[in-house]
Structure prediction request, 264 residues.
Amino acid sequence: MVVARARARSATLSFNLAKGPRTKSAPAAPSARPAAKGAPSDRPGEAIRSDGPRYIVVEGPIGVGKTSLAKRLAASFASELILERAEENPFLETFYRNRGQSALPTQLFFLFQRARQIEQIRQSDMFSPVRIADFLLQKDRLFAELNLDAHELGLYQQVADTLDLDPPTPDLVVYLQAPAQVLLKRVATRGIPYEQLIESDYLERLGEAYARFFYDFDAAPLLIVNAAAIDPIHRESDYQELLQTILRIRHGRHFFNPAGAALT
Prediction:
């Protein structure tokens, strides 16, 4: 029954991507200075200045393209870039080989890593125009619930409570969404050896967990992007359209699913 409800919610969120928001969003304010139409906005010397969001988080499941988009946004804004750096986790490869064996140390490593990154964010230049990150601290609980058994989850929560983490609230969260088969294809393309061990079933469950998480998310303005239908990294028109949408958002829930885009 839990899986059935999760799939239903995931389907609802995916449906809303195509049809628009399930609730009426507040009108978005105009950007302060739009980028030139069709011109790359991430070339040196062309940093964007706006009165839009100053702390932007790009999120989504493995292979969806969040780090690539975060890097391009940071280049456009000439801003600070804070990356998840999953490759630093020494337990990750073992986890993908046998999730039950290394799930707890994998999650605890990420938890301690997040604590250091939060401190980095707080100590960074608060007067910097924009900061871009490719992770949201709250999503760590999502992975913990997906991968840990009840006893491990209890221990994880005790450690998290002890750390008393208080991450800054983003001005905007960009949630990239794509089906499991698209994620699997992209994971294979980028060729990280241990990621080739990831199974489509795990990506399916991960996608459902993300959909559940963001279905009720209201901690910050949210932009849900159909990342299967666009390529903002290699297709300039897609990036420019997405960038202008990001610049306009001040509050509410928004959906980015360009008309006429074909799923791949």
Notes: The mean pLDDT is 81. The chain has nine helices and six strands. Residues 48-256 form a domain with the Rossmann fold fold (CATH 3.40.50.300). The beta strands are 55-59, 80-82, 131-133, 172-177, 222-226, 253-256.
